[in-house]
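Practice problem: predict the structure.
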Amino acid sequence: MSALAADVQQERLAAAVPELERLAARPLLEEIAALKRQRNAVVLAHNYQAPLIYHGVADFTGDSLALAQQAARSEAGVIVMAGVAFMAETAKLLNPQRTVLLPALEAGCSLAASITAADVRALRRRHPGTPVVSYVNTSAGVKAESDICCTSANALRIVESLGAPRVIFLPDRYLGHHVQQQTGIELVLWDGACEVHQRFSGAQLRGLRSGHPGLHIIAHPECPPDVLAEADFVGSTQGMVDHLARARPAQVALITECSMSDNVAAEFPDIRFTRPCNLCPHMRRITLENIRDALRDIRHEIVLPQAVMAPARQALERMLAVGRG
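Answer:
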């Protein structure tokens, strides 16, 4: 990290984390910094991570796919994923020669857990010849059974790139519904959902607007349709940030995981953030202590069998090729 980047990181840490909390964490922050140098390691922090991790120890921040791609461009030998299991697996798929660590093995995801590789094989039997698009928020095993992956930002483009009249779209039914509204392609949907986003409601957003005149609402497409109908903008994690940079609303509500508002607010001090809050319990399993332990002990390494690694990586690379097209 350059000196300028380090200064910006410290400024945002100060904006996002109270002074007493920063002072209490300083010994751990310094220990992690020393271990990163010793191990030639980088820490990747998802947007939903707690501000102390996001601003305090992360070398790269963003959504899961962007993190894996940024790690691939680095010279690090060790990658620590401050996120959940499927994100660590994605980092391993795109960095097969690197050591990838997940600080807490129990950091899972309700959406990824909603479908298995066996489920995908069963769907293929019920819909022979129908291509399978799997959201990146899935296990490596599910990716390995898929034709191509997608993100919330490129889902529509990926579906339409296949040139098929029908597509199996997995596993988020709300993201699938959002895509279905924008294309004439028939989507076979799975009954999966993110436990954070599915708890928001359209009534909740209407209540927010009544209490905050002029409020600009930005929602993630993993939210239910009545939520998206009330939003001023619907977009992926990175899409939300890009929209804020363009629109610069006076007051905004990000309808997504709590910590993202905390983290993004440090980048946009001129915008007032209203925080309707649903925390991801799985992200909270990542702590400074277990990041330190993972680096110190090279603990919880992600290892994937080659029979899964090769086809799962291919599904990701097909998606990236569409993006380059």
